[in-house]
Amino acid sequence: MASRCELLLICVLSLFSALAHSKTLKRDVKALNEIKASLGWRVVYSWVGDDPCGDGDLPPWSGVTCSTQGDYRVVTELEVYAVSIVGPFPIAVTNLLDLTRLDLHNNKLTGPIPPQIGRLKRLKVLNLRWNKLQDVIPPEIGELKRLTHLYLSFNSFKGEIPKELAALPELRYLYLQENRLIGRIPAELGTLQNLRHLDVGNNHLVGTIRELIRFDGSFPALRNLYLNNNYLSGGIPAQLSNLTNLEIVYLSYNKFIGNIPFAIAHIPKLTYLYLDHNQFTGRIPDAFYKHPFLKEMYIEGNMFKSGVNPIGTHKVLEVSDADFAV
To answer: What is the C-alpha to C-alpha distance for residues 121 and 219, in angstroms, rounded to an integer?
Structure first.
């Protein structure tokens, strides 16, 4: 009788054998070869052969991950980043209907994201940050119901943040910073039950925090809220303390006014609070200085009464990609 180890080895070998002898779906072969024809030499030189999933002695193309579905292999991940891809978003990507991860970050892609992006129903991670993409964020992204991570930061997107993003029930991380977005942040985003990180900093957004959290039970899982470097106004409502999972609140460089509510000091895990360069007044309640987790509170550039002190040493807050690894 074969041992468990022998049975496991047989299963693994069978899996590799099936992967090796399965044919790659023609749809995916055609799409990847169209993409190959449109990319620069830095990518193409390592994409050898016609089959992106590998053929015979040829390995799969760099950045392409495939899996077996029935009698065929399909492309499930495409990661081609930091290779200076120049030109429009490769529309053939939207024919890779089994993609779960699309990562084209840190290239030189231009123009809009095509509305056909909504065809990628299995997509979980969409990373297009650090490009030169333009136009509006397509509302069709709201059709990607399995999406957990959306990175569109450091581009030139304009227009308003589409309310359709609130239709992504699995979304955990939403990065929209460093664009040219205008209008109000949709309060509907507060209905996202799994959203942990929201960054809309460095845009041209207006409105108030009160409007943003106006729905009961808004942002139940939110840990990090980045609203910095916009044109937001009004005061900090005491209701912000209802977001009990908040750890980072980054409000710097806006037009906020008024006193800092005592209730905010009762957010149990609040660790970083950035209030600097607004128009806040009055005193900061003593409870902030007794908070067990609050490491840094920046207050300069406001109109607080004398004697109000910061907490911690002022430095640029940098959150590494590793902190939000998938």
So the answer is: 24
The answer to whether 227 and 201 have CB atoms below 8 angstroms apart is: yes
- In tens, the pLDDT along 88-115 reads 999 999 999 999 999 999 999 999 999 9
**Residue 267 and residue 71: Cα distance in Å, rounded?**
53
Tens of pLDDT, residues 60-82: 999 999 999 999 999 999 999 99
Angle at 174 between CA 169 and CA 180, to 5 degrees: 130
The helix or strand, by DSSP H or E, that contains position 101, with its residue range, turns out to be strand 101-103
pLDDT tens digit sequence for 116-161: 999 999 999 999 999 999 999 999 999 999 999 999 999 999 999 9
- Measured between its terminal Cα atoms, the distance across the chain in Å is 41
> How many H helices and E strands in the chain?
5, 22
Contacts 24+ apart (CB under 8 A), 277-281: 277/252, 277/253, 277/301, 277/302, 278/251, 278/252, 278/253, 278/254, 278/302, 279/255, 279/303, 280/256, 280/304, 281/257, 281/305
